[in-house]
Amino acid sequence: MRSIWNGAISFGLVSIPIKLVNATESHSISFRQIHTEDGGRIRYRKVCELDDREVSSAEIGKGYEDADGSIIPITDEDLSHLPIPTAKTIEIVAFVPADRIDPLQMDAAYYLQAGGAPAAKPYTLLREALKRSNKVAIAKYALRGRERLGMLRVVGDAIAMHGLLWPDEVRAPEGVAPETDVTVRDKELDLADALMDTLGEVDLDDLHDQYREAMEELVAAKAAGEVPPEIPSAATGGKVLDLMAALESSVRAAKESRGEEPSEEEAEVSSLPQRRASRTAPKQTGGKKSTAESTQSAKKTTAAKKTTPQKSTAKKTTTDKATTNKTTAKKTTAKKATAKKTAAKKTAARKRTA
């Protein structure tokens, strides 16, 4: 690997010659700007505003733009006289536990390569000291015209250094978290834990850049004059109306994707009663109408109940009247029969007297 910086690690009175090499590399696909009409390259030229002519890199220096827009030239000689003791030295200033470093501060990563045979012994000493202490070294160094902060740690048999942002370069998370009061229930936490357990761990070596692979296929197809392959669009998630239902579905989907049977714990969590649909369904706009209809139905039912006994009473009254009429008719008939018998007896008596 090609070194980008040569210097030494200052470890108390011990000096370790090292070379700084990049620990990471970018695999991103880069593009060139072209003229869409004829495919010609679009290039940027460095032109002096005063002379209105293109200048070479040898003619270009540094300058600081002041608040009023004026440019203050800064030469390499000016920079060389700056009091930076770390210009060619990675100066270790402290050893701290690794968890003291906020991941937000971590920047680019480098490997520190021992600079020749004389550096092998002190390099190994520092590496083993870091291993045994379970700590990381905090150091200051200068790179690309500025002093930086770094963290040294052991990676395999090598020492790696992560560039760190200065503490005042990390923004506070103000206004980022939700401002509304939210209550998380225990059942929701149980489902979240079940989902985390179901997804489990992953070997980072198995992860790959699908976008880059698709881009390479696209470029290869166009270079061969073929039709670019169709890339399936990613499924978009629907609107989450019920967090519990979404968590339960996520747990089931994760288990199915792994071809695993749910454990007793997860089955118990999945069988938690879901919230009623009426809680998640949108409110109906005709709520008043439904209430009125219910009231009318109730009134009709009440009226029907009241009417039924009246009909029964009417029937009973009619029956009683008919019975009374029949009784009266029978009495009248009996009286008429008695009257006829009396009249017949009187007539017979008169005939005998005559």
TrEMBL record:
Compositionally skewed regions (Basic residues) per UniProt: 328-354
Positions of region (Disordered): 252-354
Domain Ku: start-end pairs: 52-181
Positions with biased composition (Low complexity): 288-327
Keywords assigned: DNA damage, DNA recombination, DNA repair, DNA-binding
Taxonomy, superkingdom: Bacteria
Family per record: Belongs to the prokaryotic Ku family.
Known function: With LigD forms a non-homologous end joining (NHEJ) DNA repair enzyme, which repairs dsDNA breaks with reduced fidelity. Binds linear dsDNA with 5'- and 3'- overhangs but not closed circular dsDNA nor ssDNA. Recruits and stimulates the ligase activity of LigD.
Subunit composition and interactions: Homodimer. Interacts with LigD.
The protein, known as: Non-homologous end joining protein Ku
Organism: Streptomyces vulcanius
